[in-house]
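User: My collaborator sent over this chain with a note saying "see what the structure looks like." That's all I know about it. Can you take a look?
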Amino acid sequence: MEAQMEARTGTKGKGNAARRRGATTATTTALDKVGKLDTQLDTKYALGAFMRPELIAISLVYLVQGLLRLSSLAVFTLFKDELELDPATVGLLTGVTAFPWLIKPLYGFLSDAVPIWGYKRRSYLMLCGGLGASSWLAVSVPGLGVGTVVGALMVGSLSTACADVVADSIVVELSRGRPQSEAGSLQSLCWASVSVGSVVSAYFSGSLVEVYGVRPVFLITACFPLLVGLAATAIPETRVKRERSRGRGDGGDGGDGGDGGDGGDGGNGTSRSLPRLDVSPTALVDTFVNQGKALWGALSDESILYPAIFVFLWQATPSAGTAMLFFETNQLGFTTEFLGRIQLLASVASLVGVGVYNGLLKEVELRKIFLWTAILGTGLGMTQLMLITGVNRTLGISDQVFALGDSALLTVLGQVSFMPVLVLAAKLCPKGVEATLFATLMSLLNGGSFLGSALGSGLTGLFGVTADNFDNLAPLVATCTLLTLAPLPALRLLPSSFPSDAGDEDEDEAGDGKDL
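Assistant: Without extra context I'll predict from the sequence alone. Here is the result:
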């Protein structure tokens, strides 16, 4: 639902509304059709990237993010019809459920510094898979109140956001030291995987809700996070040795037979079935302090701080997407099945946007991409006024056809404007805090999205747009669309080109065959 809202109201390709992936065969096929991404890399890197197990694993993680959008229309229907909430409240709660995406640095700190079961990547993905499946099972229970539903959806967002951080950190590690075009190809792989998952889920989302209702859709959605746990097994990660002192009940380290037997952890009684933090408290504190210093040093760098400010402002413009969804269903009579078709087309358009950026624009100056996508997006966004006022019907264009075309064009522009943000963020991350810094940058992006949703909800209430009163919908949409131009003066904060980290290239090549 969030992806569709943003596609309809501007060119903001948001990370939570965003953000923010495929089985190997499906993703590779899609990428071949998009633009032969592997040919953009030299032969050595192509074989060392797209065929590396960790790339296959994170592609599966990102694919799941796309598949989870199967529930978007079901969640909207639950809020609108069963819980009988108004547009402003639905828009606000949609932003609230995405709150876990705002604290992604916390997950980054944990995954960088705190191994669980001896691993910094695998274990977190496994936990995220189980947590995500549990949250969607909870949402499927009938008779839940608004607070309980929102809480369960927040837990699902937390699991997805944490898995996203882990996958992003692997992408960052592979992007470091690579030219802009190769880093762009990696980001294109990730977002193409999201798009493939979105296409698959969008194809069924509307029809499933229409025929079976919302709860069977939630039950199906609960199966997808389990694939994240499966992806964890494909990551070739070296096990971190646990720090502990010998002595009381150490059992001679259990003969190294699973760290003291793993049934009692050297007599300490730690169960293998529970998450085990394989780091001493002192080492943990030292690691957090060191990473905090490194993160602060990175954020103090103007080349990182200024682009981050721009990204926040870019995402913080208000959206009238929820109000438009109410208008389309209550006024125009769009069924959930047809809304699913709009989502399907938007997902395909997102994949096209990835291909356009990867094939034509990944070496174009950032400022030019943002400027022209904002201008074009504002012009196209104003065409929604034709749908609201019925001008399209006067021109002989049906509401359905007009809505489909509008969604497709705005989604392509949104994806094109969002891809360079991800590439820049990935290439700015220094060693040792990859997950933390990238997560911080994405949290700023998601914070802007949250603020934009809140502003949109406030404007919806201010203009008096409700579930059955759309008299002021046209001024609301016009206001939100024009405000997408507000961040353009901040374009000067962006670098004219990506920073070069070629100095790290030799080091990265030397470590190409190493485990993460």
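A starting point for your reply to your collaborator: The radius of gyration is 23 Å.
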